[in-house]
Amino acid sequence: MQPVRRLKNRIHLEFDQFIKRDFGVQTKPFCTCGLCDPIKIPKLKKDIAIIYSRGTSQIGSIQMRLVQSTGHAKYVNPSLNIKGFCLQSDEIYKISNSNVILTKFAVEDISNFDLLQLSKSNTVFADIVDSKVNIIKLRRIDKVIASSNLQYNFFKDQNLKNVNLIYHTSDFRLKDTEAQQVFFSIAYFGSMSRIPIDFLGIPDLSVIKVPLSYDAFRKKPIYVKKLTEHSSHITVGPTVDKLVFKPFTKGLIASSIGATTLISKDDTEALSLLGQDYPYITASKDRKSVESLINFMRSTFLKEEWFLAQTKHRELLTYCCELRALNRWTEVLNFDN
Questions:
Q1: Are 278 and 271 in contact (CB under 8 A)?
Q2: Quick one: CA dihedral 97, 101, 107, 110, positive or negative?
Q3: Domain of 161: which CATH number?
Q4: Residue ranges in the chain whose pLDDT is less than 70
Q5: What per-residue confidence (pLDDT) applies to 22?
Q6: Which residue among 3, 113, 122, 201 is the one 20 to 30 A from 174 at the CA level?
Q7: Are residue 119 and residue 191 in the same domain, yes or no?
Q8: Contact 125/100 with Cβ under 8 angstroms?
Q9: Nearest 5°: phi and psi at 186?
Q10: Same domain (yes/no): 195, 234
Q11: Beta-strand (E) ranges in the chain?
């Protein structure tokens, strides 16, 4: 007897709750970092099954993982089958001889029974992104994918088997988007749940609200015009649980459009990428310190400090590259298969 299947709905709008979804619209991948060899694009060896928990398939942190690279994978591997499955559907029991990617809520929700069934004839990967880490459950999964430097180091310290780092990238739909550099302007970009309430009263700090649904049918995100209007982004947010690891996604989005960021000195992940000599690091998360640094950014706009910040962000463009992301997913999925 199969266990009673638990239903969950985290987003009211979902297009594919109990239907196999084909991710295979072929799209040519481009190198946007200038460092990739376009001739050396490896082939994937196994079909791919991406499993999401009901109501979560349209969340940005799921779409911006392997999902946004699937069209590129199909371009290189036309005969490859790449399907999306709802965890709460019995369709998952038909998956065989595939690389199975458990997206972040699927890792949380999957039962031991389902995990055992999937592991019998597939290689199962856990891609938890910024979900809270459950080491006991991750030890039962064939391979674990980290999405940030701190998460990767934590997994290695826990002696998890077969851990690989695939850094959480930018939104590839922004590759032809540029932030204006005529005047200084700064915005908080992201979910309203992540911005400290007292920041909302900071003069001249705009808020670019990102919808929970990624809306993959759009060629450009709905907020793209507002992004182009701001030369800098604030990435300071509330402290998270010690077992939650946030990749520097806001910073990579800024990098991809030529913007800079205001970061916090306790954001170890951001510092691991931008370095301790990055010029716009606030010593505290309180409003007074943040306002003071915003004023400093304004006074140094298009000066030495600003150009250093831009240089630091340009060095992160490899993390925003379509071709690099595809190559990295291919390396990890092909390893030992």
A1: yes
A2: negative
A3: 3.40.50
A4: 1-24, 38-40, 336-337
A5: 60
A6: 201
A7: no
A8: yes
A9: -135, 145
A10: yes
A11: 21-22, 47-52, 82-86, 98-102, 123-127, 143-146, 163-165, 186-190, 205-209, 232-234, 260-264, 281-282
